[in-house]
Inverse folding.
């Protein structure tokens, strides 16, 4: 990243930014207009000047509103001036940010009690009622502490102007809890796979996020569970300890207990575990196989290459169906250290013709998740920089022209022969590339890595590829559904390879 910061000084400005919510250590002022040198889609940061210095610093994308010209940025800053100092403090655990200023809007973020948000502007929105009576308040567009943007109704916000008003006091202390259950309130609990990912060095940023964990609120008598496959909040009037040492939340019936090693196991009521949640949970936590079936590369007759070095897969990629040979494991397969299973996430007991009981395992937070996330973002950026160090332009006889930049962008033109077998129709020619996948250890001898492409306007429909590269060429292989699990590639079919020359 240091080299990219240095290079950014030689480039044209990416634009002009207005500071929305600076970090305490940045030295930036809310509402200030600053030059922006460079944008990294991989680390999701802007490169800007350090105030009063010739040095540069990284700022998370969401902390700035960036504009094409200084004039436009100054106009935005003028419009923003009214709200530059305004912040809100959540007076209810679970207060929701939505994707539209109405109560039917989709939830995009759930606030903790006493969590601070940055108010960006007041907007017109739908009336909010309870018991047929309209609630007092206004809709605001706001920023959460992780950069999520959404609309919030102010009825349960304490709003103040920084530097003009005193910050609202935090909620008074809750009544003392029984020492036997205090651990759930005193520690920060994260899903057990956080520790597994940290230990293996394989971080899936879709599942390793600050919003995931178990959050207990003794003031409002609520325990909230946030997982990729499950989200719910349990109000309680009492917590009863059972003879086996577990605790039951009344009246919901949710149960939690502590293991001998000090971990926390939470069991929601069976009625809260839908079939779709159960399936998603089980797919995400089933062990990765320690042994997989390697698909051999097909023999390439001389006639197939036409004497020009084009691989067989380059010719047939558009018509070859995905391999049907599944990744397999021995009947009793133990996970390797390089591919952690996260199997401990589920405590399950099956009774014939009865649903499987599901529990979620949480561990005390160790280390700082923000540092883990930043390190993973740097790793991906370094992989991409290495990939294109010898040249960013790749050309294939049947795959078209692929240009990959170190900023995490790609342009792919002339890929018509790959439609629809590899690339769906009407995807355009530009998008984002992310080095977000890992190879199973058995695949690492032949292949160098894997990545995800997301075409602009189709960001929720990713395409995944394995690759190998040298100074002269790049071979990529599309990864069909089922060949990737828990961000790990389990199967690569060389017959689907698309061969490019590097220029």
């Amino acid at each position: 990243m240091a080299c990219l910061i240095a290079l950014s000084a030689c480039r044209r400005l990416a634009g002009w930014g207005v500071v929305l919510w600076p970090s305490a250590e940045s030295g930036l002022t809310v509402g200030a207009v600053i030059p922006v040198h460079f944008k990294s889609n991989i680390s999701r940061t802007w490169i800007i000047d350090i105030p009063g210095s010739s040095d540069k610093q990284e700022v998370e994308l969401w902390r700035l509103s960036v504009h094409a010209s200084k004039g436009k940025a100054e106009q935005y800053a003028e419009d923003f001036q009214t709200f530059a100092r305004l912040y809100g403090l959540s007076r209810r655990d679970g207060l929701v940010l939505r994707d539209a200023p109405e109560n039917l809007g989709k939830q995009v973020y759930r606030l903790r009690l006493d969590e601070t948000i940055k108010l960006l502007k007041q907007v017109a929105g739908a009336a909010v009622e309870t018991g047929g009576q309209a609630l007092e308040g206004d809709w605001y567009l706001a920023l959460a502490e992780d950069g999520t943007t959404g609309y919030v109704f102010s009825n349960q916000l304490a709003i103040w102007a920084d530097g003009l008003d005193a910050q609202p006091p935090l909620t008074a202390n809750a009544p003392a809890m029984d020492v036997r259950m205090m651990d759930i309130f005193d520690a920060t609990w994260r899903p057990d796979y956080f520790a597994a990912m940290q230990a293996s060095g394989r971080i899936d940023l879709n599942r390793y996020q600050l919003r995931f964990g178990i959050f207990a609120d003794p003031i409002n008598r609520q325990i909230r569970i946030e997982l990729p496959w499950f989200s719910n909040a349990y109000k309680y009037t009492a917590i009863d300890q059972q003879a086996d040492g577990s605790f039951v939340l009344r009246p919901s019936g949710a149960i939690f207990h502590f293991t001998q090693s000090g971990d926390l196991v939470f069991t929601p009521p069976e009625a809260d575990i839908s079939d779709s949640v159960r399936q998603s949970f089980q797919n995400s936590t089933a062990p990765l196989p320690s042994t997989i079936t390697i698909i051999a590369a097909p023999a390439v007759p001389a006639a197939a290459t036409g004497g020009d070095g084009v691989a067989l897969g380059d010719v047939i990629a558009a018509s070859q169906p995905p391999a049907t040979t599944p990744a397999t494991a021995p009947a009793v397969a133990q996970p390797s250290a390089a591919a952690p299973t996260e199997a401990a996430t589920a405590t399950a007991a099956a009774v014939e013709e009865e649903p499987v009981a599901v529990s979620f395992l949480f561990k005390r937070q160790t280390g700082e998740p923000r540092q883990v996330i930043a390190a993973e973002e740097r790793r991906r950026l370094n992989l991409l920089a290495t990939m294109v160090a010898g040249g960013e332009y790749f050309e294939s006889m049947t795959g078209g022209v692929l240009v990959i930049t170190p900023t995490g962008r790609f342009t792919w033109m002339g890929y018509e022969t790959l439609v629809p077998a590899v690339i769906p129709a009407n995807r355009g020619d530009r998008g984002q590339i992310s080095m977000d996948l890992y190879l199973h250890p058995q695949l690492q001898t032949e292949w160098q890595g894997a990545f995800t492409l997301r075409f602009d306007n189709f960001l929720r429909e990713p395409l995944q590829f394995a690759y190998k590269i040298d100074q002269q060429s790049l071979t990529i292989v599309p990864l069909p559904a089922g060949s990737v699990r828990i961000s790990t590639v389990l199967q690569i079919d060389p017959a689907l390879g698309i061969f490019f020359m590097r220029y």
Remarks:
- Residues 369-387 form the longest helix (19 residues).
- The chain has four domains: 2-83, 86-161, 179-285, 305-323+368-502.
